[in-house]
């Protein structure tokens, strides 16, 4: 039999006639069904066309026709992440972004953000506002509990405190931050933000501080020192809580008082600073003068702030850099303030030399990690202040460096039966540029002197860390979040103080 279809068809009709008839019948039924469907579609189209020409009064009574979703949409919905590690990871990263960028929680309900997230991962449905609030509360509970366990195991913790006022809601808050050493690292954590609803008396402040310490399971015996500014009510409350020996005045505030007191005592200096401030104010308010300065230099003039002495230093420093341009512009501008003379410029230059070591010290002690970063700072040389001298004799740490360079081969502390302090004093001095105090004392964890040294290293010099955290508070309590409750504000502020590299933040 040949391979054409005619022979096959004739074979089926002769020997398999029943199968052929059944197949013909089935094809006829399918053709009839398709004809009915096509006729129905034509009737619908005709009806719709007729309705568009002659609208019926009963159109509103017609049942609403729901659009059938596309197959791809149905599949995408089924493939959405419902739960699991991937959903948790995405939720945590989204929460971290909200905390880091000080965004309102309701941003997760914004359709534009949800569209953006869908474009990145079509299978992830971001949580709504309520769910995100719950995630933030759970994260605060998890991390705060972890920190409480860490603090409870420490022998020494130093505390900084400050009071901050939310101007949007006229609400004051008392803040406490804890400072401690762990694994040869200096660490800081915001441990309490208490809404102040009564007058800020020393008795009330004492009660609020004790409430925060109880909440974090911190005992008085663990507190090595408490650092605050010179406000009388705060100092009185701290002395009642911890005893006068543990209360330290913020060193940065002391420097501020010293410098501002010295400046205000000399009328010649105060008058000169007023002239500089007037020049800066003129350029801040005059568009033409500001534009002229922009054409000459990208540097802008800086204005001083009465509460921060170093802002005066920065104002003078910047003015001296652009002095020549400023003089040129002022001489060609009507109604300009009096110019700074050449003699006055010399006085300003001398002032910067005198104020530079104070500025260096302020920046150094205001650094949260100043114990670790101390070795990375270039010492300020005293010849810049007083008179030209040999550089090897200048600087804050000259005595230490000279001692480190001296070697005494006859010194053998291990053979000398002296007390531990004398033993330490006779040890060779460590290299200042490479030694980290925390690492050094970790070698002597079992000795009484080593343990006491580690306690002392937990003490910070200023209350700036607490003030710095409260500066974040101003970016959290904005117009978009002015209805944030004190409870949620505390949670946001705590989470924002957590180190970005802290892996625990992105764990459930």
UniProtKB/TrEMBL annotation:
Superkingdom of origin organism: Eukaryota
SUPFAM superfamilies referenced in this protein's UniProt entry, alphabetically: Ribonuclease H-like
Domain called HAT C-terminal dimerisation: residue spans: 420-495
A Pfam family that the UniProt record links to this protein: Dimer_Tnp_hAT
Protein location: Nucleus
A cellular-component GO term for this protein: nucleus
UniProt biased composition (Polar residues): 49-66
Main location: nucleus
Keywords: Metal-binding, Nucleus, Zinc, Zinc-finger
A GO term for molecular function: zinc ion binding
Region Disordered, residue ranges: 25-66
Presence of the UniProt keyword Transmembrane helix in the record: no
Protein name: HAT C-terminal dimerisation domain-containing protein
């Amino acid at each position: 039999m040949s391979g054409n279809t005619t022979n096959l068809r004739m074979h089926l009709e002769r020997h398999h006639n029943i199968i052929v008839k059944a197949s013909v019948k089935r094809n006829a039924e399918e053709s009839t069904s398709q004809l009915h469907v096509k006729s129905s579609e034509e009737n619908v189209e005709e009806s719709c066309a007729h309705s568009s020409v002659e609208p019926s009064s009963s159109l509103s009574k017609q049942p609403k026709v729901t659009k059938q979703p596309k197959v791809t949409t149905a599949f995408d919905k089924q493939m959405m992440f419902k739960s699991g590690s991937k959903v948790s990871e995405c939720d945590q990263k989204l929460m971290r972004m909200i905390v880091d960028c000080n965004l309102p929680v309701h941003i997760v309900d914004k359709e534009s953000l949800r569209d953006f997230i869908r474009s990145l991962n079509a299978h992830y449905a971001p949580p709504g506002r309520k769910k995100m609030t719950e995630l933030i509360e759970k994260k605060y509970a998890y991390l705060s509990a972890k920190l409480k366990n860490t603090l409870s195991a420490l022998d020494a913790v130093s505390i900084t405190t400050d009071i901050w006022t939310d101007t949007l809601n006229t609400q004051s808050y008392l803040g406490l931050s804890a400072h401690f050493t762990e694994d040869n690292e200096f660490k800081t954590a915001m441990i309490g933000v208490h809404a102040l609803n009564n007058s800020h008396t020393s008795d009330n402040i004492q009660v609020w501080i004790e409430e925060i310490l109880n909440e974090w399971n911190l005992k008085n015996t663990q507190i090595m020192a408490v650092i605050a500014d010179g406000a009388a009510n705060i100092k009185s409350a701290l002395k009642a809580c911890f005893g006068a020996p543990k209360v330290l005045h913020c060193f940065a505030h002391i420097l501020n008082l010293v410098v501002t007191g010295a400046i205000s005592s000399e009328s010649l200096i105060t008058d000169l600073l007023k002239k500089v401030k007037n020049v800066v104010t003129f350029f801040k308010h005059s568009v033409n003068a500001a534009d002229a300065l922009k054409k000459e230099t990208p540097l802008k003039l800086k204005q001083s702030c009465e509460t921060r002495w170093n802002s005066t230093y920065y104002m003078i420093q910047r003015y001296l850099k652009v002095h020549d341009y400023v003089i040129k512009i002022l001489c060609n501008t009507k109604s300009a303030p009096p110019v700074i003379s050449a003699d006055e410029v010399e006085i300003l230059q001398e002032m910067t030399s005198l104020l530079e070591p104070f500025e260096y010290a302020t920046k150094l002690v205001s650094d949260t990690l100043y114990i670790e970063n101390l070795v990375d700072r270039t010492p300020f040389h005293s010849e810049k202040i007083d008179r030209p001298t040999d550089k090897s004799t200048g600087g804050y740490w000259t005595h230490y460096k000279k001692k480190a360079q001296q070697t005494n081969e006859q010194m053998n502390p291990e053979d000398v039966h002296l007390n531990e302090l004398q033993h330490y004093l006779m040890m060779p001095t460590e290299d200042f540029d490479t030694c980290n105090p925390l690492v050094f004392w970790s070698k002597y964890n079992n000795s009484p002197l080593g343990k006491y040294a580690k306690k002392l290293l937990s003490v910070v010099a200023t209350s700036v860390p607490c003030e710095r955290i409260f500066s974040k508070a101003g970016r959290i309590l904005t117009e978009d979040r002015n209805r944030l409750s004190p409870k949620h504000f505390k949670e946001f502020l705590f989470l924002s103080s957590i180190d970005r590299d802290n892996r625990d933040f992105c764990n459930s």
